[in-house]
Amino acid sequence: MSEKRPACARAALDPQYVTLDVTYRCPLSCAFCFMAKSSSALRAGPEMTRADLRRLVDSLSGRPRKFYISGGEPLLRPDLPWLVKYIKAAGHYCRVITSLSHTPASALELFSSGLDELTVSIHGTPEIHDACVGRPGAFSAIAAACAAFNAARSGTPSKLLFWCTVNRANHAVLHSVYKALAALKPDALAFHHLDYITSRDLAAASAIFREELGCAPGLKVSQEMAAGISARRLFAQISKIKAEKDPKVRLDLNLSRGEMGKWYDPGSALEKKGFCISLWNGIWIDPAGNIISCQPLGHRLGSALKRNVLKAFNGPVYAKFRRTLVGHGGFLPTCSRCGRTAYMSGNRDTSRQHGAGKQ
Q1: For the ranges 95-109, 161-175, 281-295, which has the lowest average pLDDT?
Q2: Of the chain's two ends, which shows fewer C-beta atoms within 10 Å, N or C?
Q3: Cα–Cα distances in angstroms (integers) from residue 36 to residues 43, 131, 215, 317, in the given order
């Protein structure tokens, strides 16, 4: 049976987005980190060499793409400024996602490397953020680094985006967090609902993986991260932020009061709206050069180094996983608390869907 997929992707797939995790090492210990709490991926392991990265970028340079460099903490790679320059020289868009928790001299080189966007993970007022990440002075370091970035990008189109994850420590004072972050003058500020895995969803996903893919998902139950979050108080704080009418603010996702109550109740079953198309319009590569479904799931779908990456993206292993996703309505059970916006809302009939997603 041929693969059923969005109408925009019936020809050979040629991804617009490339998410490149260059390391899973991280110096922080965030209590709400999906990578640490929900994924079995090891923080230490093989990482692509500079030669590997050069070959990978070259193999994807047949058209302009959007490269998102992430981790772990990508600033732990001293060759990060070189990689950004190489990607830009090949004509691509380049975004770096970082906690700015490791800011050696190479960070200043990164700021002047020509990157299009710096996305900074920052999760509270100075006191709350420092407690969240387990490092005193972390907020002050970010503030200083962002001031340096703003100076370095003067006169360029580079953007500064803040990414704030809702969690137990910040949810009841999120409006104060908004004020503290807005004072650092980002171009955009995104609030992201907490990602976690419930025991019910993992059991359902494990059955699908066992029966249809012959393996187990690399995930762990992490529903304890939702404990102590009051959906009522969070909704009130988000309402105050919305009342500011700040065009720089984005909510991932924009949940109703009822939806928010279910999101933060691990006992509630959630059914996602829409259809995830990130497996059609984007490719995600882990530090060792494995093509993965996405970092949250971490399901391996081939190697980006052992064969032509676009052939692997269009190969039988990837196609089988896409068929599994389509067969279950466009999301797997463990996707229910994923707030990433790389999917379309509305009609689930993939034979008639079209359009582009955003990662």
Answers
A1: 95-109
A2: N
A3: 8, 17, 21, 27
